[in-house]
């Protein structure tokens, strides 16, 4: 078996284990540990992968796994019950992220007010009244 195939099977095994294991089963048994048979297969697959490559690919596998679990919970959340099994996004600061200050501002004026004086509008109203012909 090739290393790529072993990585894919390890990814699939972890995905299926998380999706098909419900929280109720873990609470009843009092353990959040995986089934020993699943652990045995995962250990076998990890033995087929070069240890250096496994260390390199493990963070990527976990990232893609959590993203896939989120998609699965959106599509089949009621069936699978994976609502709390994925990890939330980290709130650590990354210097490469684009800054968005707009939600942080408390009061935002999108358009400035026009400088109008009240005297000019009153004069225009009074001039408009005097021009109108009076019908008798």
TrEMBL record:
KW Transcription regulation (keyword) present: no
Membrane topology type: Peripheral membrane protein
Subcellular location: Golgi apparatus membrane
Transmembrane segments: none
Keyword Membrane: yes
GO BP: any one term: intra-Golgi vesicle-mediated transport
InterPro entries on file: COG1
Keywords: Golgi apparatus, Membrane, Protein transport, Transport
Main location: Golgi
One GO CC term, this protein: Golgi transport complex
Top-level taxon of the source organism: Eukaryota
UniProt cross-references to PANTHER family, sorted A to Z: CONSERVED OLIGOMERIC GOLGI COMPLEX SUBUNIT 1
Entry's family note: Belongs to the COG1 family.
Protein name: Conserved oligomeric Golgi complex subunit 1
Species, as recorded: Physeter macrocephalus
The organism's taxonomic lineage, starting at the top: Eukaryota, Metazoa, Chordata, Craniata, Vertebrata
Chain's gene name: LOC112066595
């Amino acid at each position: 078996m090739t290393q790529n195939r072993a990585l894919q099977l390890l990814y699939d095994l972890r995905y299926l284990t998380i999706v098909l294991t419900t929280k109720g089963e873990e609470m009843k048994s009092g353990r959040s540990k995986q089934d020993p048979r699943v652990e045995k297969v995962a250990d076998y697959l990890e033995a087929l992968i070069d240890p250096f490559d496994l260390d390199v690919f493990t963070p990527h596998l976990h990232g893609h796994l959590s993203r896939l679990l989120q998609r699965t919970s959106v599509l089949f959340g009621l069936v699978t019950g994976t609502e709390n099994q994925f990890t939330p996004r980290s709130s650590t600061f990354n210097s490469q992220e684009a800054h968005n200050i707009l939600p942080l501002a408390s009061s935002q004026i999108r358009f400035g007010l026009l400088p109008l004086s009240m005297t000019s509008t009153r004069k225009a109203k009074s001039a408009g009244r005097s021009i109108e012909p009076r019908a008798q």
